[in-house]
Amino acid sequence: MALLEIKDLHACVGEKEILKGVNLCFEPGEVHAIMGPNGCGKSTLSAVIAGHPSFQITQGDILFKGQSILNQTPDVRANKGIFLAFQHPVELPGVGLAQFLKTALNAKRSFLGQAQMDGVQFMKHMNLRAKALGITPDMLKRPVNVGFSGGEKKRLETFQMAMLEPDFCILDEMDSGLDVDALKVVGQGLSVMREPNRSFMIITHHDDLLQYIQPDKVSIMRDGQIVTTGGVDLVHQVEEQGYDHFR
Amino acid sequence: MIISDNRFFLSSTAGVVVERPASSKWIFQVSENGFLQGDFLQVNGDLDISVLLNGIDAKCELNCGYLLNDNNKINIKIHVEHKCSKTISNQQIRGLATGNGEACFNGTITIPHNSQKCDGHQNHRAVILSDTARVLSVPQLEIWADDVKCAHGSAIGPLNKEQLFYLQTRGLTESQARKILLSSFFNHFSSMEFDGIIQDWMAHYV
Ligand SMILES: Nc1ncnc2c1ncn2[C@@H]1O[C@H](COP(=O)(O)OP(=O)(O)O)[C@@H](O)[C@H]1O
Ligand SMILES: [Mg+2]
């Protein structure tokens, strides 16, 4: 059974249709890159999978582990194992990152019927992952995303994903704004997370991040639809020729 | 227990003469090098604060919060006058409004012609939690000196939807997310005096 399946999905904002019949399938363990020109609906697709309330689903379905999630709130989807690393993470003044992650992690554990993590267990869980992604203790104390550079915000998104250990990871332009060193840190962080039961949907315009986490499939999106699905060679076609000849 | 009386906590009055001509009215005279730091929590009625920064390097930090519910009316007036050069002021005002309440904040910073190198800040943020609560902000800057820094800002509206969504995508329920965002809102107070009152109020009204 597919981990996540998107069937003929149509989504609107007000009168405007943005997703116009998306079909996609993610097998367990699969890394699937999504590429497409600006404005074709990639971020909308990510937000819709995560349950953003601004978009109305007018047709189609999203199945996660075999069940429709369309009627579920974003927190239920998250606790079932869907994680969205945002293209533009929002700032949360006054909300400390470590404190908030502890609440989030324990919310997930209680949803799954697991015991709460105490302070010591949590610190161990956190320090290990923070170190791997170059997140300093100072960054953990600061309010979420406030005053961080673009690249740091992306690293913090990856860190949160590593903390919550989701089954389905959506990375929306994770590589935009990263310098070579940050790209390496994030890339290695992702490749460590690759597991037989965990799938990745990686939205990108380039080959850079995919060097660290080889995609099994690549799909091209245009104007609210998937127009082609193929292998890694599609990435190189895009890099050389752009999106124009994909229709 | 939801309180019905207004509260205050003065954490520093070094070099400050404090006058309180009425229960809702305060006058603070801050002399050279003096430091006024005060927290005020308003749940009903008027609060009228005047601060006169009279000597060089006089400093004031006013942290106000208000909790508005039912048919209550809150009127907060703060006037800071930089009567001397190199004086510093910072006013931070945070409010939560629900029910049919009405809140009005009037904040004035005056920097006369002769007061150079002053620094005046004022920031008012309020979250409106019902369709019928009303919050009004009237900032007034009277700056006559040229070599000064002065900034004011105001943000009034419902809770930010994108912030709520972000927290929910991390597994927090909408109500947990609201509580986190609203609690973080009041972290400007210099003391923890009002923490319990604010938590109780949120448990009751949010
Ligand atoms: N909340 C919204 N309101 C109105 N239009 C939107 C909204 N969100 C996205 N759009 C529009 O939908 C289209 C797709 O946007 P987006 O999904 O961000 O594209 P991509 O991520 O592929 O660059 C764009 O034309 C964008 O302007
Ligand atoms: Mg996008």
- Largest sheet data of chain B: 10 strands, mixed
Q: Identify the CATH architecture of chain A.
A: 3-Layer(aba) Sandwich
* Average pLDDT number of chain A: 95
Mean pLDDT of chain B: 95
Alpha-carbon distance between the termini of chain B?
15 Å
**Tally of strands of chain B:** 10
Most extensive interface, residues per chain? A-B, 31 and 22 residues
Q: Helix proportion of residues of chain A, in percent?
A: 25-40%
Order of helices and strands of chain B: EEEEEEEEEEHHH
**How many β strands of chain A by DSSP?**
10
Main sheet properties of chain A: 6 strands, mixed
CATH superfamily of chain A: P-loop containing nucleotide triphosphate hydrolases
Percent range of helical residues of chain B = 10-25%
Percent of residues in β-strands of chain A: 25-35%
- Given the structure, what is the number of helices of chain B? 3
Q: Globular, elongated, flat, extended or rod-shaped: what is the shape of chain B?
A: globular
Structural class of the helices, strands and pairings of chain B? alpha/beta
The CATH C-level class name of chain A: Alpha Beta
Give the H and E element order of chain A.
EEEHEEHEHHHHEHEEEH
Radius of gyration of chain A: 18 Å
What number of structural domains do the residues of chain A give?
A: 1
Structure, described:
The complex is a heterodimer of chains A (247) and B (206). Chain A is an alpha/beta fold and 247 residues long. Chain A has a single domain (4-245), classed as Rossmann fold. Chain A contains 8 helices and 10 strands. In chain A, the strands form 2 sheets. A 6-stranded mixed β-sheet of chain A has the order 6-7-8-3-9-10, sandwiched between helices. In chain A, strand 9 (217-222) and strand 10 (225-230) form a beta hairpin. The longest helix of chain A has 15 residues, at 97-111. Chain A is globular, with a radius of gyration of 18 Å. With 206 residues, chain B is of the alpha/beta class. Chain B has one domain (7-159). Chain B is 16% helix and 54% strand. In chain B, strands 1, 2, 3, 4, 5, 6, 7, 8, 9 and 10 form a 10-stranded mixed β-sheet that branches. The longest helix of chain B is centred in the last third of the chain and has 12 residues, at 174-185. Chain B is globular, with a radius of gyration of 18 Å. Chain B starts with 6 loop residues before the first strand and ends with a helix. The mean pLDDT of chain B is 95. Classes of the chains: A alpha/beta (247), B alpha/beta (206). At the A-B interface, helix 2 and helix 3 of A face helix 1 and helix 2 of B.
